[in-house]
Please model this.
Amino acid sequence: MDPFSAEGELLNIHSAFHSGQYQNVLDFETSVLSPENQLPAQVLKLRAQIALGQYDEALAEPSIEEDSPDLSAVKALALQSSGKTDAALQLAQELAENYPDNNTVQVLGATVLQAQGLSEEALAVLAKHQGNLEAVSLIVQIQLQQNRTDLALKEVQAAKRWAQDSLLVNIAESWVGLRVGGEKYQSAFYVYEELASAPSTSAPLSIVGQAVAEIHLGRLPEAEAAITAALEKYPTDVELIANSIVLNVLAGKPSEELEARLQQVQPAHSLLADIQEKSEFFDASAAKFSAKASS
Amino acid sequence: MGTLIDRFEEHDGPVRGVDFHPTQPLFVSGGDDYKIKVWNYQTRRCLFTLNGHLDYVRTVFFHPELPWILSASDDQTIRIWNWQNRSLICTMTGHNHYVMCAQFHPTEDLIASASLDQSVRIWDISGLRKKHSAPTSISFEDQMARANQNQADMFGNTDAVVKFVLEGHDRGVNWVSFHPTLPLLVSAGDDRLVKLWRMSETKAWEVDTCRGHFQNASAALFHPHQDLILSVGEDKSIRAWDLNKRTSVQSFKRDLDRFWVIAAHPEMNLFAAGHDTGVMVFKLERERPASAIHQNQLFYITKEKHVKMYDFAKNVESPPMLSLRKLGSPWVPPRTLSYNPAERAILVTTPADNGTYELIHLPRDATGAVEPTDVKRGQATSAVFVARNRFAVFNPSSQVVDIKDLSNSTTKSIKPPAGTTDIYFGGTGCLLFITPTHVALFDIQQKKQLAELAVSGVKYVVWSNDGLYCALLSKHNVTIVTKTLEQVSTLHETIRIKSATWDDAGVLLYSTLNHVKYSLLNGDNGIIRTLDQTVYLVRVKGRSVYALDRNAQPRVLEIDPTEYRFKLALVKRNYDEMLQIIKTSSLVGQSIISYLQKKGYPEIALQFVQDPQTRFDLALECGNLEVANEMARQLDRPNFWTRLGTEALAHGNHQTVEMTYQKQRNFDKLSFLYLATGDQEKLSRMAKIAEHRGDFTSRFQNAIYRGDVEDRIQMFKEVDLYPLAYLTAKSHGLTEEAESILEACGLTEDQIGLPTLEQPLQVPNPIVPTFKSNWPVKAAGHSSFEKALLGEVGADEDIDVDGYDEQMDDEEEATLARETLDDDDEEPSGWDMGDDVTVEEDVDFVNVESAEAGAASSEADLWARNSPLAADHVAAGSFDTAMQLLNRQVGAVQFAPLKSRFLEIYKASKTYLPASAGLPPLVNYVRRTVDETDSRKMLPIIPRDLETVATVDLQEGYGAMRSNKLEDGVATFKRILHTLLVNTVSSEADVDQAKKLIATAREYILAMSIELERRTLSTDSPENLKRSLELSAYFTIPKLEVAHRQLALMAAMKLAFANKNYGSALSFANRMLANGGSAKLLEQAKKIKAQCERNPQDQIDIDFDPFAEFDICAASFTPIYNGSPSVSDPFTGAKYHPQYKGSVDRISEVTEIGAPASGLRLFVPSQF
Model:
């Protein structure tokens, strides 16, 4: 039986992880689980720790050095997150070669590869999956990052046929929906709203999703209400800050303070990097023009 | 409901028939004692008894209009009585067995009777009516006609004659009733049959028989407004029959009691059936229309089983959207409705067939009562949507809750707590299980119970609009709980609670049978209004309550929400709102005062009270001495002064205390008060008063307080207490005085017998002159509410927005301060001819090369391809092409000032959606074409649209002008120009508006720049003075708003006048007067005009011709007269002397003066 299915005992920890409630994952009582579920639970806990930015602590866990492909894959991810990208890449490639059928290796290995920009390699690793929903959602994300909305849509629709109920598929469908737009914006909004309002799944992840959907729907006041409330609760959540900047600019409000805050929390965020790059691009482009006469 | 009001025990033996009078407070009864009694149920007394029947009286009925009573008896007669003159007016004979029932026709002069002789008879009583109607002149013909009526019975009686005899029952007939409107009758007999009869003017015949009772049928009647027959029988059953098909529709069976009689309520949808041990009151169907609310829409099912939608925002009812005619059985209305906005689907349940549900998709548009297609159905008593694509159904027989997806297949099954009777939506992903004693909250995903609360008999659940609170309604209780099922408050009603709805502020409005009431979260409740008929509340909006009535018609009830809003504001301590309510509404009355007092807000209650005594009490309670003082003066009774004094003393407000003591003539206390506050002067006055009053004790006291020895001695002497006088004098060292006392009284020192002398009394010296003012005073108990009241008063003064006037007078200083224009001078950028920009002349599109292979191009790239507008290219991040476009369109060459605008647009173009942990967020592109999915038409959103610029930024610019913040103003208007330069609009009309805005911004920037330039000049040299005068004159040229032009004219006029340029000043004054406007400005203009007219000459000749048409060169600030050569800027249209051609526009700072340009594009028609 699939341990993550509706009847499985890992369901709650699994959905907590994927709805972004990482602290809940860490607090999860795993000692009551049956022996065969101990390992997946531990993997999830370590991943939650990494997601919370505690990769050094994760690397310091004794279990991560165990000789298990699952835990080694977690180690690769931890290495990647802590900036040791070369070691991470080597480990990931090694694991992908030796254990191509291991679910954790597929997902985490592909994550490491994708994070280093090796999208095609990542997709190749993931292509070997057998009914692994996490792999599906990762494939969708990579394809969206490649702007292949068409392929992502196919992937989601295929997955929906055998796992319509899954949280992961629902979320992945919303990712695609936010790309496709039109009526799909509203559907994506409903998914995130549902996640954000249910106590068992409410987290910055889902609130950001809800707010992003509202921005795309052009409902700025609602988006602002959601984000402002969430920012009070999670003042250092990077994506909350980033989207709050977008929202403030859209509403014609100053965003400098938020940008400074983002700079402080995550200087490498793509928004800041992007703006910096564009700012230089602007100067370079502007330099090509000048007036015929000096004034 | 269902409470016994009174018992009427005068009949001897069983009572078989009773009837209420339709209008009077009367009822009639007949029994086995052969008597008919008429009662008044208000005085609860029997008015009189009608004797005459010779056997049991079976039924008695009032006539609907005439003062008649109809009785049927075992003595085989039917009698009509007049209850006004209490006489028997007609006896109808003909039946030859017990007459079991006799009834008047509701409108015609007919009587129907049923007898154990197996017949039903119809009697015509029009003769009786004629005979007893008010005496009118009867024509001869009428008399003849009456005399010749040949249908007289065997006694020659023409009052009541048998019209028809209906035979068909094989046994005795127990009951007969008329149809309220149709010519139909229904009868019930011992042959266990219910028979339906029809009659015409001339005949009557049997229509059909309803078979089903398996014992004697006792009574039958027609449903007052539906096509149904109801019958009861000795088989212990109540049965409903379809009038048209004569088939059984519904039946109800009691275990032990045989039914004997049935009656219908004249107005309400209620029936009563009498059986062996009592009476059962029942309705045939639920009257509560099934409904569901989503945002501003109410979906409901009408009596015709049509699904309709009502829009609260527009107050309109949609045409029917669907017909649910086939749902359940025809006589059973649907029970509940649940709506899913994401799928636009409804779930309807009906109790028919042991409970079924149907899942139906609503049509996109309401086009009429169409039959639904693609209906999913199943067995359940409750069905609710729990998520976007899931619903829960509950089957009480199997005690299982199934979670189903929209294809109606079960995805999950839950075992609810034992005894669950109903399920409700419990917040996202949750369900509420209702058992007779508990409510449980259950998380569907985690499959666990989150909370449980002991509340018994919950029937309905109403969620607040924000989903934080929920009201659990049972028959007589409302329990308010949080979304986690923690009880917040509960309240009890003796009248049945029918429905509830939340207003947006978190007040619960609920309806009982006959009231609309409210409850705050803390349980405070009260009545809002009464109801003339029961309604089911669905929504509150402002002063309107929306409800569905029992005919499933939406109704809007007006309410006055003041009381509960006030209480809510009080609970939330929202003083501003309370203040608002107090000021704008007439919220008075004892109840609100006692409420406030009870809740500990006497200071607020004070605002509502007029009665001085209550005001005094409240003022004391909240320590408001001023009000208390005022009220005490009005009342002026010792009792109030005492209380005020005590309170004031506690506050340390001794001046009030002093006043109260004075009022009470409480001299001793007053003296002590002066002593305590150190008021020597008043103490001595007290001493005088005491002397005057001849009150020695008081005088002595005062003397002690003041340390006045002489006075004491004097006093002792006056009362002949010489030894004491001596002693006093002696002890204070007044030996001479002591001697004289001895002398005067003729005593010696020995005789007095002095005790040992101690130190004389020291009078305490005040350290602080406390008496001068109230100090120290207990911190005044001003609540924040009172502060709000006071603050409100203080803020009433007008705030002078117009800072310009004062500023004008300070003109000299302003000039001296040498404010400089910081952005007028730019670095020359070299004579770059722009050769490296190669642009094809006529093509507005700029092609963007596709992104790298493998991955497709992003949506941002599409934007640039889809649009020829610079703003869209900016949003796409394609700054270089955007610049090329701007260069071509408006000759933009210097982009630095646009940088923030570029980055602003770019920043707003995409959102960051966190996806898988460990990977960067997914980037999505924000569109202004929200509904578009065709990638060739997608376009980015551009922040700060035209409307924002026109409403926000422009006003800010005007504000800067008004308040003389010219540097800010220049910056604001430049920002407007930059924002408009890189923007999009949605129509040609908007393009025109944008162009107007650009022109306005240009004029203001020019005007402000001229004035700023003038302020940098010192006026000490004649050249500078001349230039200054010129600039001030030019300042009046740009086309500003009239109010602003007046300011410019004012400044120019004053400066010209001050420098004796009376001619110019006169022309400015004339222009001002022509413009009109503020009286204050015009007054000044008039004065100056009058002075200048005496000598309209300019002392300093300036380059300004008030009568010529000219533009101002935006670079040199000199006039360009009509006809002289000039160049203009392609973007702003600002004019320059020809020598400035090719340099950067001073107004926008972006574009090149005189550059070739195709014109700014903000709008592409095909995009919309």
Summary: Residues 211 and 293 of chain A are 49 Å apart (CA to CA). Chain A has a mean pLDDT of 84. The radius of gyration of chain A is 21 Å. DSSP finds 17 helices and no strands in chain A.
